[in-house]
UniProtKB/TrEMBL annotation:
Similarity-based family: Belongs to the peptidase A8 family.
One of the record's GO molecular function terms: aspartic-type endopeptidase activity
Gene Ontology CC: plasma membrane
Species assigned in the record: Kineococcus aurantiacus
Catalytic activity: Release of signal peptides from bacterial membrane prolipoproteins. Hydrolyzes -Xaa-Yaa-Zaa-|-(S,diacylglyceryl)Cys-, in which Xaa is hydrophobic (preferably Leu), and Yaa (Ala or Ser) and Zaa (Gly or Ala) have small, neutral side chains
PROSITE patterns recorded: SPASE_II
Predominant subcellular localization, coarse grouping: membrane
Pathway terms, separated by semicolons: Protein modification; lipoprotein biosynthesis (signal peptide cleavage)
Protein name listed in UniProt: Lipoprotein signal peptidase
UniProt lineage: Bacteria, Bacillati, Actinomycetota, Actinomycetes, Kineosporiales
């Protein structure tokens, strides 16, 4: 019996993706509402000393405020990511991949919501960022979720775990080659 045969049913994996998405998406949106309501833009407030500060900014670009004049491109790209992840997650046979897709979907939809609904307007909205670590750009829960997804995806890829849950055997020879 393979790993894929012992994995949870497809519907349960989709449920895990949905649960991770829902929890992280709600956390992202609630923290952004609280940040906008209680923080002054551009004015850092220590939270855990110098380790973690709240520092509200509105980011019109991508990560690290890259390409600030192309907000509509990032809006379109995020929408494509959401569609692709939703379509692919219906076919998953791997619980770890389902979790990774949940984090990726939450991050993409969290920032997409900002781009669609926040000022200065539809598909041009600025993303609310408010968390700052030392020597690191200001980010939000959605950004952190995308990073968690990237790490999970990298680990799964390095370990050779496919979307179907099976592990790819690297460097193995077939019986004919080894004889």
């Amino acid at each position: 019996m393979s790993e894929a045969d012992t994995s949870p049913p497809r519907s349960r994996r989709a449920l895990w993706t949905l649960c991770v998405w829902a929890v992280v998406y709600v956390l992202d949106q609630v923290t952004k509402v609280l940040a906008v309501a209680h923080l002054t833009e551009g004015r850092p407030q220590p939270f855990v000393g110098e380790l973690l500060q709240f520092h509200l900014i509105r980011n019109p670009g991508a990560a690290f405020s890259f390409a600030t004049g192309f907000t509509w491109v990032f809006t379109l790209l995020a929408a494509v990511v959401v569609v692709v992840v939703v379509r692919m997650s219906r076919k998953l046979r791997s619980l770890p991949w389902a979790l990774a897709f949940g984090f990726l979907l939450a991050g993409a939809t969290g920032n997409l919501t900002d781009r669609l609904l926040r000022e200065p307007g539809f598909a041009r909205g600025h993303v609310v960022d408010f968390l700052q670590l030392p020597r690191w750009p200001i980010f939000n829960v959605a950004d952190a979720s995308i990073c968690v997804a990237a790490v999970l995806i990298a680990v799964l890829a390095v370990r050779g775990v496919g979307l179907d849950g099976r592990r790819e055997v690297r460097g193995a020879r077939s019986g004919a080659e080894s004889a």
